[in-house]
Every structure is written in C-alpha cells, then in structure tokens.
Amino acid sequence: MRAPWVLYVFCLVLWCSIACSSTDDGVGPVEQLDQEFEEEEEIFAEDEPGGEQAPSQGKESGTGLALFLGALGVLGLAVMLGRNREPARTTGTGPSREELRAQRLAKLGQLSGGIDRTFPPAPDDQNVQTSTPAVQDNGETPKPVQTMSSYTHLDKQKPISKSKPAEKLDTPTEARGKESKVTREDQPATNQSITALQAMSTDTGKVENRSVAINRETKGPSKETQKAKPKPPPKEVPLEQLLLSTLSKVFDIKVELATQGNTKAQAFKVLYLTPGELPTPGEDMVGKVVEIFDRRMRWQYDKVKFLCQCYGECEAILRDNGNEVLGTLAECVKDLVVPALLEELKGKSEEKGDLWSDGKSGNEGALYLFLSRAAGWSDDGVNVTQGLLAAMMDQAVHDKSFHPTMVKLVKVAVDRIKTVKRMDEILLQEGTMLTALDAVLSQPGMTTIMAAALDREVEEGCHNLGIYFEQKSILGTLLSLTTIVPMERYMFPSPATLPFMSLRGFPKPTVDDLRIVEQHVHEGLHRIHEVVHGTFRRMMKTHKETVLAWIAAILNMNELRTTVSPQMGQQMQAACGDGYMLNLSAVLLHLCMPIVRGGQDKLAKVDPAYSKSQPCRLNYEFETCLAGGQIVSEESKGAEKCRVPEELQGQFNFMTEIFHLTQRALNVGLIPALAHHQRLNRDIQVHLNAKQGTAEEEMVKKIQMLLVTTWDCCLNDPVFVQGVTEFYLSQSRWLQLQLDTCQQGLKETEVQRQQKRVFSQLPEFLVKDMATWFRFVVTNSMVVHPSILQGIQLSPFVDCCVTLLERPDLMPGPIPASKIVGTLLSFTESGKRKRGSQGWGTGIMTDLAAMVHTCPSVQTGLGPALLHTYVSVDVVEGLDVDKDDFDKYGSRFEIAKLLESLWQWQDCRASVLNMCGTDKFQAFLGAILDTLLYQLHDSLARLANVRKIQKAKEDEASWKALSIEEREEKQKFLTNEERVGKSFMNLANSTLGLIDLLTQSEEVCKCFTTAPLSQRSASAVIGFIGALCGPKASELKVKDMEKYNFNPRQLLLQIVRVILRIGREEALDKDGFIVSMSTDTDYSPKYMEKAYSVLVRDSVIDPTEMQQFQKMLEEMNVLHEAAVEEAPAVTPGSHLPSWVEQVEAVQLDAVVLAEKYVLALGDMRFDAAELQDYHSFQQNASEALDPRSPKVKALMKEIKQLQSNLPVHPGAAVFVRQDEDRMDMVRALVTGPVDTPYSLGCFVFDVYFPDGYPNRAPVVKLITTGNGTVRFNPNLYADGKVCLSLLGTWHGGDASEKWNPKTSTLYQVLVSIQSLILISDPMYNEPGYDGMKGTAETEEQSAKYNNKLQVDTVRWAMLHQIRQPPVGFEDVIRRHFFLQKEAVLQQCCRWLRDCRDVEKLPKLRRAVEELKTELDKLEDIADIEEEGDEDEEDD
C-alpha cells in the first residue's frame, strides 16, 4: 500500500505548491511585469508597419491545474481508503479477484462472439473514444471513457487529467460497451499500448502485429512474465490495414472491410467499407474520404466533440507519422472538419411559427460545447486545439457568412460568464470560460471579425443612448460585471451582494473576512480586464482606428454622466452604469501604462493641442479650458465625431490619442462614480437617521453596509487605485512639462503668452479630476487600506498644484483652484491620524502633512496663492450648481483651514505677511468680512427659528392641538433649521478664528485701519455685537447650544479682541476703524456696555484687555455723541415725521406720472458709458474682443433687443449701460417693484459676458450692498452674489429654468431678477421656509424681515444712490427720484406706520428724514424736464 500513499502525498504537495504560486494574470497596470510593457511598447511606436501577427500563447492560470490536482489527490485518497477498508478474502467465502476478472472477460468474449483475429486491430483502437453512447445488451448507456488518444495529442497549453484506460477488449466497440474500475493489474496493458503506438509511427509504415499482444492482454499476464519475454520486432503492415487502422483512430469507430455476412451484425459498432470505398491513393481518394466522413457524421449526436476529436487525431498523425498516404488522409479530414464545425456552430435557420423557435440565430448549445472544449481542458479530454481554432478563424475571416457565428461565439461566452452566481467565484465558476474566450479572441483572424463588429456598434451606438454599449455591445456584458448595483437591488441577494451578505457576523463582518472576499472579487475582475486589454492590444496593430473610435463613441455618448447625479433609489437610465465605466477605465489605464512609466520621453510625445484639433474624436464642446474660454467647434460633427476622416488620420500619434482618451474616460467614468458614491452614502445616512428607533432600522443598516462594501470593493481595488494614482502623477508631470517647454529661448512675456496659449487648449476638468481623485484616496482609500500607496511620491502633484495656484492667468477658474485647496488640506489633516498608521511615501516622508509643509513651492508660493483663491471664488464664470459640486463658503472654509495650518510655519507666514498693504491683501480681508457677515447672521437667524419651535413644543397643549400635518411640517422645518444653523455656525467659528489668528500680527491690524476696509469692518463688528447683545439676543437662547456649535461668550470674546488689536494700531483717523464704528448709524453705546459687562461678569477676558476695552469704549462714546445726536424716544403716535400729513395729502395721478416717466426716461433705457475702470469684472476682460467670435455676434443681437424691449414704467423699470470699448461689460439698473420692501429703490448690477457666451450664461453681481454689509434677499448676498437658476447659481427645478443658449438672453435675466427675487415676501425665498408660509411663527418673522429690508432700501437703494449715483446712471437716478418724489415719500410714511420691529423703527425714521432732505434738493433742478425736451428736439 506504499505506492498509493506516495502518489497521494505527491499530488497533494504539488497542488499546494501550484495554488500558492498562482497569481493574478496581469490584472491591472501596476502588477504587470516589465517584460510585458516592453512588448506592449510596440503599439506606441510611431508609423509602425502593419502586419497582423499571431499572438504568442500566454501562460495559463494555475488555478485550474491546482484544482484538478487537488481533486486527483482527493480521488486517490478515496480509492486508497476504500482498498484499506476492503476486508481480506478468506478461502471459501467467494471467488478471488482474479477469478472474478476471468469470469468477466469470458462473458465479454461471449457477448462479442469471440475475438476476431482476421484483421489486426488498430494500434490504439482499444483507446478510441466514442462520441455517441454505445448501446449495451442491458440497455444502459455508459459514460464516455477517457482514452490514450484523447490526451496524447492535446494542446500543450494546459496539463490535462489523464484517466487510467479501461481494460483491453478485442474491439474498440467492446471497450466502449463496458466500464470497469482501473486496478494495478491494468498498468502493463497501458505500457504495451504506448509501446505499440510508438512502434506504429515509423517512416516505413510498419507496425507491430498486435494479435498476440491482445491475446496476451486477455489472459492477463503477470509482471514477471512480461519482464522475462522480450518484445517482438515490429512487422510490416499492408497499406490496406494501415488505412483501416488510421480511419478507426480518426473517426473513433472500428473500420473493417465488409465481408459476406458481417455487414449488419454490429453496424452500430463497426463501420464496414467495401474494397472500393476504402480511400486508397488515387484521384478519388478525397471523394471517398468525404463519403466516409459524411456517413460517420450522420451517426453523431455530439458533432462538436466528434469533429474536435477528429481534428486532434489528424494533427497527431501529421506530427508523429511520416507516411505520405496517411498525411494526405489526415489533411483531407482536417479540411472537412473545419467547414463542418463552422456549419454546426452556425446552426440551421428555424422555420417561422415553429413551437421551439426562439428567434435567435446560431446554435447556442453547440457554441457553448465548443467553448467548453476551447479552454484546453474538458471532462472527457476532447479539446479544441490551437490548430483547429486557427483554421476555423482563418476560414471564417474569408467567408463573411460565418462572421455572425464568430460574434455569437463571443457573446455566448460573455453571457455565460455573466451568469456567475457570486462575484467572488468568477474564476472558480467561469474561469474555464474566460480562458476559452481569451483563446478565441487571441486568434489573429478574430481581430478582423471583432473589428467589423465594433464598427457596427459605433454606427448604431452613435444614434442611440449611451447605455446601448452596456446592453448591446459584444463586450458590454463582460465589462458590466461589477459589485456596484442599483439601489433597489440591495434589498435582495444578487451576485454582487451575496458574497458580502454571506459573511460571518454580517452586517458586522470581520475585516479579514471582508478582505478575503474582496481579493476573490478583484481576481475575477482583473482577469476580465486582462482579456479585454489583450483583445484591444492585438487589434491595435491592424485596426487601431476601429478600437479608438469605439472607445470614443462610448465616452461621447455617456457625457450625461458628468451632468446628472442620481439620488438614492434612482438610476441613470440613459447612460452606462458606474461599474461598466470603471471597468472600461481600468482597461484604458492598462493601455496607458507604457506612457505613464515611460518617463519624460514618452510624455513629451503627448500633444496638448489634441483637444481643440479637427482630428480630435472626443466631444469637448463647451468644455471650459484651463486658461479661460471654451472649446467650440465651428462645425459640429455630432455622432460621427468619434471617427477621424481618412485624410486626417495619423496627425496625432497613438500615445496622444490613448492618453487623452484615458483622461476623458476617468472624467466620464471614475469622477461621476465618486460623486455618486458620496451622494448615496450621504442619502443612506440621512435615511438611517430618519429610521432610528423603528422596526426598519436594522434593514437600513444592512443596506448601508452592503452599499459601503460593494462600492469600496470596486473603488478601493488596490490595483485600480495604484493605476489611477500613477496616471494622475504622470499627468502632473506632463502639465509641468508643457510649462517648461515654453521657456526655451523666449523672453518672459513671450513665455507667459505661449504658456497661456498651450493651457487654453487643455480642458479644465484635467485639474479638477486630478484633485478630486487624490482627495478621495486620502479620505477613503487610505482609510480602508492604510498602506495602499506606500512608496509612491506625491511631489509632482503638489508642485503642479502650487504652480497652478500661483498662476491665475493659467487657471483663472476658482473651481479647480478650490478643489486643489481641498486636496492639500486633506493631506495636511491626514497627519492627525493615530500613531502607528501607515504613511504615504518612503521612509523619509512618512506623512502627507510633512510632504506638503516641506515642499519648497508650498513654503514660498502657496500662501499668496491662497489669498487670491479666497477672493476669486466670489463669482464663478459658467457656474452651474446642479452640475458643479461647488460651494463658495465651503471652499473659503477649506482655504481658511489650510492658511491656519501654513501659518504655523515661519516661511509660509512670512510669504503671506509680505502681501500686507497690497490691493490683493485688502481684497482678501474684505472677502473674509463678507463671509463672516453672511455666515454669522444666517446661523443666528436659524437659531432664532429653532428657539421659536422649541418654545412652541414646550406648550404641550397648544402643540397637540395642531393637526398632524402641521406638526410634521414644523418638525421638518425645525430639523432643517438645526442642520443648516449648525453648519453655518461651524463655518462662522472658523472664519472668525482666521481673523483672530491674522490680527495677532501688527501688519494685518494696520490693514483694517484704512478706508474703505475700516468702514466695512466697523459696520460688520457693530452688527455682530448688536445681534449678541441687543434686545433680540434672548431669541438665541436655544437648548443645548453645544449641539449647534454655538458658544456666544467665545464669539463675543473673539470679536472684542479683534477690536482691541485693531484699535491699538490706529491713531483715530477720520476714516479709521474706531471712528467708523463710533459714527456708524447702527452704533449703540448700550450694546457695547452690555458686551463689556458680560465679559467682566463671566471673567472670560484678561484684566489687561478689560482695561483697554473700557478705555476704548469711553473714547468711542465721546466720538459718537459728537457726531450724532441722540434720537428722542419713540412712543406710539409720535414716530411719524411732522410733514407726513402734507405728503399724504398730495393726490397722485398714476396715468400722468407714467406718461411723464416714460417721456423723461424712455430714451435712456439703453446707452453707452465709460464703465471699464469702475466695473466689477474689469480683471476678467484681459484680452481684446475678437469681432468674429460667436460672443460678439450674440451680443449684437442682444443690443437690438435691449434697446426696444426694456421696461420703463414708474412701478418697475430696467436700464442698461454698455461700456464704450468693451461690449461684453454691461451695467444694469433695476428699480424695485411697488408693493414690495424694495419699492422704487434703485439696484445696480454689473454684468460680464464670458468668452463662451451664449453657450455660457453671463456673470451678474449686485453692486448695491451697502459696502458689502447688506443682504437684500436670500438670493442676493452681501458680497454681490446673485442666486438665480437661469444663471446656474441656484438649483433649477427643470431644464426650462436653466440657461438655454438658443433662447436665453440678458433681458430675460434682468426681468427674472425683478419679478422672481424682488418680491413682496422675500423671506420665503430661503430654502425650507416656503412650507411654513402662513404660520404664526413665520408671518411675524416675515414682517420684521421686510422692516429690515425697508430700512436698507431707504439707506442704500435711495439715499446712497442720490448722494453717490453709480457711474453711467447719474441722469437716470436724478430723473427717477425727481419724478417719483411724492410717491417715494408716501411709501415711506406707510412703512413707518406699519413697522412692527421696534428696534428698526427709529433707524427707519432717521433714514426717511435724511431721504426727504435729499429729495428736496432735487427741486432746485428746475430744468430737468426741459433737458428732456431739448434732447428730443436735438434728435
């Protein structure tokens, strides 16, 4: 029993070694061998000659071999244990094993009629396999038996299981008729069979006479007898017998010459031929072979197996036998097998109306059986050899009728792979089919067929939706295998979710179990990527244009993914899914690896002019470029853009095309997938919070876990992450290379001009996507796999980021700049993780934060660049909030955090302080004030609303008295206010913390003492102290303030400290900070004293600071008393001016007023003026206008419309001024509609038309903001931002509300502002407030909100406009208020009577009194109407 044990142990050891050494078959770009990349570089050679080459046979995966050897070992163990358990036979208990064997052989001899010795059997006839089941006497159908012929000539690609042969019978039919267990006594027969087979293969055609050997086998000679007797010498065999023997072997049946009486005895076991039918050498030899072949084919049920076996036997004859006759016979059979096999795979057309007809073309069953054997391994040992596969493809290429069959063959394989039940068992269940598919696609002839199929897909796909390529493409099903599934499928087990749902402890599995499942999933997906990549790489040599057009068509037709982000529970029906696009991106990354790892020489060959060139096959229409402008083609190619005209082909090398295609694939595939992943995680968390404490909570937790694991499995695949990272690092080096190339031999001004020209050809998304990816890696991938990128240097990316931030002329767009800032911030904050976690980089740079802080470009250039970025995010050209994930205040929050981090380093701090006193630094400080003003006021307003709802809920009786709908609506409102209030308070704390940090420097404090920044900061500080210490401060006393990040004492302390620091650097100048605070109309000594008492009482201020604050208050009170007289106390009935009755007594004739208004101002609706030096967007107009540009043509049409259509009426009017030199710079004046808090006020807007106009909306900024201190509407910010869906700055409900290049105009924008923003109840423009309209809480709040707007309208839209009329509208302002003097004053009286806000009432009265004084001065202009008449006469 030693031999079986040794065999079992040997197989087990061999299996373990192969299983441990088997690795992923080139699954990704990072794990490929250098040798493979050297071979792949042939694709990237320029002007490479054609010539299709047969690809070398790749190494097969060791997985199948390991599993097979393992199974063999287990089988051996089972047999061995069975023998050990067999009891020893005793005399008299039954026949011995030898006796049973002798009885069985005797019975077989009787059934077969004895051994026929009239014709020597074929040398290997005892091992000939049958393709049809042999019918036995007992009616049973035996299983096919593994034979020697089935494995001696197999393709050497994979080791095949060699089953032990059956016992030797007299004929091949008898050998197939019985199954017997293999014993050790059978081994000598096997050796003799091999010896006889070798003896037959001689040049002389002599073979050994096997009659004696067969007789000796029947008697079962012992080993001693075989060793004692020498082998008989081979005898010469007649040609007739040689042909019969060969035919028996090829056609897998006993072939004999027909004699009288034996033609019907066993026809199903023997093929009888007459002497004339025997294919002897001659002219009719081929015809005879065809007839024999046809006869044999008619008997076959499994024709695929029979044909494959015939071909394999013929190849063995040609390889091992030098006989010319047998070689001719084998070639003839091979020529018959190939077309027969193709026809069998093609199938017959089914009749219409047939019950079993399914309307599908092709014999799918035969195709599947063929593929099962094409992998090089099958259960019965009959496989498709490489020769057969090549011959089939060669004939199919020349016969187009077989093209659909070959395409169907690929689809059957792909569809079979798609049916995998678990994504972690792709290789286990369908590894053989993947191997077969790779073998088919690797054939040289298949590249032509695939190219034709892809050409058809391009033609059809360009006229369909993008999802066509996932659903209908020949490779679509294969690339759609992913663990990312639609949201609704997470409720049920699926191939994507089942591997994770079956983990132990789910939904809280162990990390080790999760990593094992992910590894198995990755192995299967990597194998798929390898198959597709190999196919593309082979096709590139002869059909490069087809492959590139197919890839470009997918990317062009799926651009919708960059603009639409589905919500939870939704899916994008028109575009390919995230999993499909990620797989396609992985394949393209694999193709790009020779460029990525090829160094500067390879990158230098990538042409940056591709995106704007005519041969560009990608759709970059209206894409924003890095240096400004858009990519606009003169002629839109539409669906045919993915194809390059023949005369333009070759203008760009392959490296340029595949590099840009990969960039676009990541933009269309990867980046939207990251956005979808983030949004789904956020939505499911919100859903989970809503379900807490309910029966559905557990189910939602499971769905959340599945969502996280399935998405992370794809997005955090280590091979994929490394590939994308390497690509973007090479892109960073490529961008830097473009800058360095322009510096060769040119002057500085010329260099900058050349660099800007190059960057104006590059899409902006290159930088945005790169920054988005690295931020995801730091915040997500490195959390899942801490060492995923260990050893990769990030310095090229960091250097590139700082360079671009320093050059606003190369990257004026604030969106990519803000994304870069967010990524660098995530680098610095990654240093806060726990000790012991893996860093990013080598042993020198073990932390991302250290990498950023030690970068030379960061130390000297990043700080000043951040100042510019902070200001530039104010107004964004071409912004669409529904498309771009951009928030101005969120971006400024990240800039502030990064500045705080850099401030700790002396070099970085010095680079910022060197900017003090410059216009850029003053603009930066002003932007900080605007941000703080918005964030703090908005957060405090939200907290006041929270307090109101909390008080309402405290009164349980009143709360329960409300209807269920009212309670739900108020609870929803409360939840929204809590969320937004907490978020804004966190932003406000950060912004105020930045001001606190900056003002610790004397240089920065001095900047706050100069006008106009001193006036703006003084007004802002007074507003903050009034909100915290005024009468409305009690409304902010919410429960659990820490929950909302609200600490009023800390806020007040920081504000006071800022006041003290600035005050120390001031000498009480006229326009200084302290004087501006003291003389501000909203200054209240009472509020300042309250602030002082709170800080002293709670001991939160240093004694020294307390004394300084007290002294400053005394000085400020003196200045205030000297500048402004104290207003008398306002009592009911005395808050109206003395002239009210006189004004109200005036009777206004609306018709007459309208006629005068139109007469005086009708011709002034549109005019030209010198605006450029006073315009908010003067820096945007850096280059001269091109009179032939689409923008100029569109503006000419705009002017004609504005000249005639602008409304001019006392109740609402719009006036426009255009710059005399720049027609793309416009200023508009919009009067407030009557019966609104803006009534009769004048609101000025600056408008700029970007280079992409009319494809991009104009940029609009409000100028009437009270020096940046007044927010006139939830959609009109204090910094001038205008939120309007038509401008892309507000979330539009549908496409009709968005900017339409064909129908939208400036006229539509201005009218929308007047009618949709300047309304009677503007508070309800705030998101979440509309549902509360009509309730007691919001009605009172809305009235007080309007009172505040009325005060601001009188101050800034009336009084300030009269005193300092905006440039271009001086005459319009004078005439407007002169003609509407009585109407304005009567309106102000109504506002005074209806004012509900006691705090605002004295301020409103004071403003109205000043307004009347200014209006009375206009009466001195007696000739204002005469001027209008004179202008008409001159015309």
Topology:
Layout lengths: L1 H20 L12 H7 L21 H24 L11 H16 L36 H4 L19 H6 L9 H14 L5 E2 L3 H8 L4 H6 L6 E2 L2 H13 L2 E4 L12 E4 L11 H14 L4 H18 L3 H23 L17 H11 L11 H13 L4 H16 L7 H16 L2 H18 L6 H4 L4 H4 L18 H4 L9 H47 L20 H19 L3 H4 L50 H37 L6 H19 L2 H24 L6 H12 L5 H20 L10 H12 L7 H16 L18 H6 L2 H17 L15 H16 L2 H8 L5 H36 L1 H6 L2 H35 L3 H6 L5 H17 L18 H17 L8 H7 L5 H13 L5 H21 L16 H5 L5 H12 L4 E4 L20 H16 L8 E6 L5 E7 L10 E7 L10 E4 L43 H12 L18 H28 L6 H10 L1 H14 L5 H19 L5 H11 L1
Parallel strand pairs: 3-4, 5-6
Antiparallel strand pairs: 1-2, 6-7, 7-8, 8-9
What would a concise description of this structure say?
The chain is mainly alpha-helical.
- CATH superfamily of the domain at 1140-1434, by name, is Ubiquitin Conjugating Enzyme
CA-to-CA gap between the ends?
123 Å
- Please state the oligomeric state of the protein chains shown: single chain
Number of distinct beta strands: 9
Relative strand content? under 5%
Structural class: mainly alpha
What is the overall shape? elongated
Strand order of the largest sheet: 5-6-7-8-9
**Overall residue-averaged pLDDT value:** 79
**Uncertain residue segments:** 18-42, 44-63, 81-94, 100-228, 834-846, 1126-1133
Q: What portion of residues is helical?
A: 55-70%
Radius of gyration: 43 Å
What is the correct CATH architecture of the domain at 1140-1434? Answer: Roll
CATH class of the domain at 1140-1434: Alpha Beta
Number of helices: 53
**CATH overall fold name of the domain at 1140-1434:** Ubiquitin Conjugating Enzyme
